[in-house]
Design a protein that fits this description.
heterodimer; A: mainly beta; four-stranded mixed sheet; globular; disordered N terminus; B: mainly alpha
Amino acid sequence: MEDDAPVIYGLEFQIHIIDFDDENNIISKNVLLHQVGEIWHISASPADRGVLATCYNNTSDSKVLTCAAVWRMPKELEPGSHESPDDSSSTAHTLELLCHLDNTAHGSMACVAWEPTGDGKKVISLADNHILLWDLQESSSQAVLASSASLEGKGQLKFTSGRWSPHHNCTQVATANDTAVRGWDTRSMSQIYCIENAHGQLVRDLDFNPNKQYYLASCGDDCKVKFWDTRNVTEPVKTLEEHSHWVWSVRYNHSHDQLVLTGSSDSRVILSNMVSISSEPFGHLVDDDDLSDQEERRPEEKSQEPPQDSVIATYEEHEDSVYAVDWSSADPWLFASLSYDGRLVINRVPRALKYHILL
Amino acid sequence: MAAAAAGPGPGSGPGDSPEGPEAEAPERRRKAHGMLKLYYGLSEGEAAGRPAGPDPLDPTDLNGAHFDPEVYLDKVCLRGVRVGGPGPGYIALPHHPSDFVAGLRRECPLAQLMDSETDMVRQIRALDSDMQTLVYENYNKFISATDTIRKMKNDFRKMEDEMDRLATNMAVITDFSARISATLQDRHERITKLAGVHALLRKLQFLFELPSRLTKCVELGAYGQAVRYQGRARAVLQQYQHLPSFRAIQDDCQVITARLAQQLRQRFREGGSGAPEQAECVELLLALGEPAEELCEEFLAHARGRLEEELRSLEAELGPSPPAPDVLEFTDRGGSGFVGGLCQVAAAYQELFAAQGPAGAERLAAFARELGGRYFALVERRLAQEQGGGDNSLLVRALDRFHRRLRAPGALLAAAGLAEAATEIVERVARERLGHHLQGLRAAFLGCLTDVRQALAAPRLAGKEGPGLAELLANVASSILSHIKASLAAVHLFTAKEVSFSNKPYFRGEFCSQGVREGLIVGFIRSMCQTAQSFCDSPGEKGGATPPALLLLLSRLCLDYETATISYVLTLTDEQFLVQDQSPVTPVSTLCAEARETARRLLTHYVKVQGLVISQMLRKSVETRDWLSTLEPRNVRAVMKRVVEDTTAIDVQVGLLYEEGVRKAQSSDSSKRTFSVYSSSRQQGRYAPSYTPSAPMDTNLLSNIQKLFSERIDVFSPVEFNKVSVLTGIIKISLKTLLECVRLRTFGRFGLQQVQVDCHFLQLYLWRFVADEELVHLLLDEVVASAALRCPDPVPMEPSVVEVICERG
């Protein structure tokens, strides 16, 4: 597989596909038109790399409704395809609409989340105070509302963000509304847990630890990033307070979950090393049975060094608020961040840390 | 001379002429006479040589051969001058008497010479008659003296005869006496022998009577007497026990003695009597030769019984219910009852069983240790009940007494370690008191906070102007300080000179430095800082469980502590407790740093909380409004006015406690500033919606270039201790929120214009609060620019119209 990192970000009415060639350090771009409206959320299908879902504003009669749809991009632009588009900047391709997630009865869509390990048939979408589970049928050309649940309570409750847990056979979804984080079981569509007042103010984003069950990171307007064990929701396991303004996005590294990326409207991206709560707390897991006695000593000696949670790096390349950060799905040491001023920054994990983790 | 004067008493009377000293006494006269002679140039020796009778050679004899009228005259004249009064002859006093007589003869007229002569004759006569009188007197005295001597001679002769007779008589008597004693000698010896026999018999009788006597004594209860008898007889009986009769007596005695001992023991065991009687019993038993070891065992057992009685009564006083007598009474009772008893026992024991040696002393020490331990346990229980009380003086007095009372047994029984144990208890209590005071101070601090909360909450209900924050701050500060001082004073009692334990090393060193200074004062200040900081960490960040004014007040309080109070309080403590201990103590600077950090955190939190309040208002106002279908703006929205009002209120609030601070120099027409920046060149590029791929690049470039020239705004940056910095922080947070919220919405044309109006309004009023007005401009520009970017139909309002609307509203 080519060492390519497809990163997708949305701007008004356009979807750009950025190809980053790590070996040659070349960035190339393809533009897809998204004619139905401005995009507020975008997520790619884990099963089919040509399929993605967007949440977009549909403005009509001085009313804004955020809708969601599933799209397929043209074959030749699919990431990983070898044929390099000749002059990408000159031609704009069009997305092929697969289906709408009909939300007329439920209100504005806040986000769409794919089932992480399935066959790309299940999608969760959050619309106002409803959580909707869709079944995509007939190669995603038809979306059927499988089940739904809604949040009842006083005031106007609105989901802001949601993530699908990769654990427990993908039966759990976490959502955020106002200051609370809730867990849902997708089989019964009932609430499993609820972290009231997870943050002092609005919760902006969530992410599940990909390697460690029950572990969940959240971030919000109180400038904090909190790590939770969903079995005990009274206290966060850990709290980071490195940002000086709202934290908009938090992401675990897909393979080394001690690496946590956060983006904030103080226009900084911070890469933290949360060794103490990662699935590999001492840098690397050693299987005792496979080792001879002598070799067994060494990891013990090494483990004497206390694991320190620390900020690895603060990236200040952005001049305005950073609204999205994500890791490359192809290279675990690569990540990108996107800010308000339209700047996309691709960074690597520092080499020293990389070797420290690997060796 | 005194004897002579007394002797011839009758003779001296008439002769004593007052004229001259010569007449006083014969001897005196003779002496005077001698002097007279000396005066006339004759030695006394010559005069003595010829005692009586006219001497032809006597110059004083007028008829003598050597009489020299010249000399005589001279002398007489001189004498006249000296003795007599002024006479006609004394007109001029020549230097020499002969000169005088010669002068007299030469110079005086005859009549005057004649007068002199008659005068002289008169004097001579007077002298003669004087002399005669003297001679008579002397003669009489001499006669009487002779008579006396004669009589004495006779008497002596008679006495001699008497003495001789007496001597003969005495010889006769001696003779008789010797004879009598010779005759009596024989009888005397017999009598002596008889007396000896008599004594022996009496002793024997005593011995024979001994059993009955002992029995009687025992019956009468005169044990002391009985023991004495027994003691007297024992040796004799021991010696003669081989004689059957004595043996019988001894046997009898032994039987009785055994009974006696038994009775004594009985009495001893019954133990109704007090300690002195007990001691007496033991003494008697010892005298009876009972085994000492057993006795001291019993003695101690008995003493234990009594002391345990005391302990029980003390324990009863403790009781399950709250103790009726106060702690002073309790320790008094314990001191007099138990400790006194213990002292008595120990003293009696040491007196009685001194012969026991170290083993006995060890036994006593163990005894005292055990009972003392129980006593201490009781005292500690009682003192523990006292821990809650606030009165230190009573406690200290009680401890003092307790400690003092235990000194005596401590000195008596050094091995038992009672004094040390007592000191330990006192130390423990002192430590606990310190802890108690620390708790008290903390509670007082929390109480103050509650009061402040109430004061802050109450006036809002009443609707009138509440007490000023400065006033509240002063109240809190003074109240805490007075509590600290009261605690110091209360704790100081432990180190007062008159308290018996104050000179123990613990109270001189560790108590002062580690206990009072570190534990109490430093501990309190630390806990105060922690309490204050806990307000920052409280989970109620959202609800604002802590009123912001309280945060502000606490922050100022901590800052004041940093600047003055901490060093004052520590100096006060050091002075009062004269810390001599060398152990390391927390320096003032560390504490100050902690207080400052607390103050800073509190103030930062205050900024966050207040910023959040305003942010929420702004956010709600942006989120709930339908910006697409809004009408053309006519007014500034009410929420903006509210924001300005609230900011002004915060400004006033902070101004009560913090100084103004410095702000950057600003242009005079800052309020007149218009929206030139975003309404002109910069926005043109952005507004033009472009679908060509190159256009966004230009936009980015423009905005980035713009940003290159403006400093990055750190929204939640640390604040400084002044009003401007605080307000800047709050406004920064609020405006940044506004910015982010605006970016999440889509605006219609009039929505954009409304934002324009609102921002201009904010600009008009907020610049004055912040340190750098550029900051406000920058953020507001950003807001309007973002709104424009979020608007599909961006037609900005004319700046002049905006101004008009703002000035109207």
